[in-house]
Specification:
It contains nine helices and nine strands. With 234 residues, the chain is α+β, with helices and mostly antiparallel strands. The protein folds into two domains: 53-85, no CATH class; 87-234, Histidine kinase-like ATPase, C-terminal domain (Heat Shock Protein 90), CATH 3.30.565.10. A hairpin with a 2-residue loop joins strand 5 and strand 6 (164-171). Helix 3 runs antiparallel to helix 4 (63-82), helix 5 (93-104) packs across helix 7 (128-144) and helix 7 packs antiparallel against helix 9. The longest helix is centred in the N-terminal third of the chain and has 24 residues, at 34-57.
């Protein structure tokens, strides 16, 4: 499959259209293997470092910054505890979305839509840490779809559908054509200029295999992208 993609990308028509597509080698490993662990640690570590620098250079005490630092530290502690195995629990999806918002809220203008009834009913089984990391991968991809210097809008909607719950993550960034949508699901392939977005295949596989769910992608160039994550509720 990888050789086939590389051959297709070498053709002149694709070289012109997708000059920024890159392919990297990624090993096959467990959902909380070392590369995933490093990927999961990157966000809280970066947030912690930035907030530490902010406190050191500021003369005023900012409770919001300190609270964000605490969240990052707790997140790192959970990640280190998870190395020994995937923790299974029951959790509310809204809580996982809130954790993602706290971690990435400074990188974009977030809007979260979820009714009180859905908050109470949206209970699923599995590892909250693993599910949160899937959301982080998708949300970071949405943020990175925007060019620098513009307001990056990301909308997250949580809705109930019979015996399942849907988390829809929407952006109004660059968008993708059908070929890019296909390649975005392939491990090691990035459609971003800086080879970001490599966590999307991990998120899709994890939602499917460990949460018995599905991921559906809607995208159009110049319009934006919607990612629908559907998982059964308990």
């Amino acid at each position: 499959m990888r050789l086939c993609i590389q051959w297709l990308l070498s053709l002149p028509v694709w070289r012109t259209a997708f000059s920024f597509v890159t392919i990297s080698q990624q090993s096959s490993e467990s959902p909380l293997g070392m590369s995933v662990f490093q990927h999961a640690c990157a966000t809280p570590l970066t947030t912690l470092l930035l907030d530490t620098d902010s406190l050191l250079t500021s003369e005023q005490h900012d409770p919001q910054t300190v609270n964000r630092m605490k969240i990052s530290v707790l997140r790192l502690r959970e990640l280190f505890q998870s190395v020994s195995g995937v923790l299974s629990e029951q959790f509310q999806i809204y809580d996982a979305v809130q954790e993602v918002h706290k971690m990435l809220g400074s990188s974009a203008a977030f809007s979260i839509c979820c009714s009180p009834e859905v908050r109470r009913a949206a209970l699923i089984s599995g590892s909250k840490l693993l599910f949160t990391e899937c959301l982080v991968c998708i949300v970071k991809n949405a943020v990175e779809s925007y060019p620098e210097g513009v307001v990056k809008q990301v909308e997250i909607a949580i809705t109930l559908h019979c015996n399942s719950i849907c988390v829809t993550i929407s952006d109004y960034g660059r968008g993708m054509n059908p070929v890019e949508q296909f390649m975005a699901r392939i491990k090691g392939v990035s459609c971003h200029k800086h080879s970001t977005g490599l966590g999307v295949p991990f998120a899709v596989r994890t939602i499917r295999e460990y949460f018995s769910g599905s991921v559906r992608l809607e995208s159009a160039l110049g319009v934006g992208t919607k990612v629908h994550i559907v998982v059964p509720i308990k």
